Amino acid sequence: MTTMGGIRSGIAANLATITGLRTTATVPESVSPPIAVVVPGTVTFDRAFKRGLDEYELTVLVIACRADARTAQNTLDAYCEPTGSTSVKTAIESDRTLGGTIQDLRVTSMRNYGPAEIGGTVYLTAEFVVQVYA
């Protein structure tokens, strides 16, 4: 049976393949960039007959570093590329069934690229939307 915690952990494990990027499947009390945080979103139940398919939408928040650092944008840009060794999309989609625990997933978009205040500090961040079918 698929669980939200299992999906979050699987996505975080896929993201851990990016060298130097910390990952967490739960929302932390404090952050130490660069870090990717897997955040649950909406769940649409019963997409197929008799509990055949549920659709999950999760957000991966990538926090690069303080927004005033000149290198922050270059760091975040590398995570936003559609392919490559630092691509969030490529890493998340490296195992699209999360070890056989889901049917499929895909990164559908990147949004909200810019400064965000977290715990009183302004960081440069971007959100990636992940659709999961389980």
Pick out the low-confidence regions.
none
CATH superfamily: Phage minor tail protein U
Largest sheet: 5 strands, mixed
The second-level CATH architecture is 2-Layer Sandwich
- Would you tell me the overall average pLDDT? 94
- The radius of gyration computed from the alpha-carbon positions, rounded to a whole number of angstroms, is 15 Å
- Report how far the terminal alpha carbons are from each other: 9 Å
CATH class: Alpha Beta
CATH topology: Alpha-Beta Plaits
**Portion in beta strands:** 35-45%
Task: Report the structural category.
Answer: alpha+beta
Strand segment count: 5
Tell me the helix content.
Answer: 10-25%
What order do the SSEs take from the amino end to the carboxyl end, as H and E? HEEEHHEE
Strand order of the largest sheet: 1-2-3-5-4
Question: What's the domain count?
Answer: 1
| Shape summary | elongated
Total of helices: 3
Written overview of the protein:
By secondary structure, the chain is of the alpha+beta class. It is built from three helices and five strands; from the N terminus they run H-E-E-E-H-H-E-E. Strands 1-2-3-5-4 form a five-stranded mixed beta sheet. It is elongated, with a radius of gyration of 15 Å. The chain starts with a helix and ends with a strand. The model has no long low-confidence stretch (mean pLDDT 94).
Could you give the topology of this structure?
Layout: H1 4-15, E1 22-24, E2 35-48, E3 53-66, H2 70-80, H3 88-92, E4 104-118, E5 121-133
Parallel strand pairs: 1-2
Antiparallel strand pairs: 2-3, 3-5, 4-5
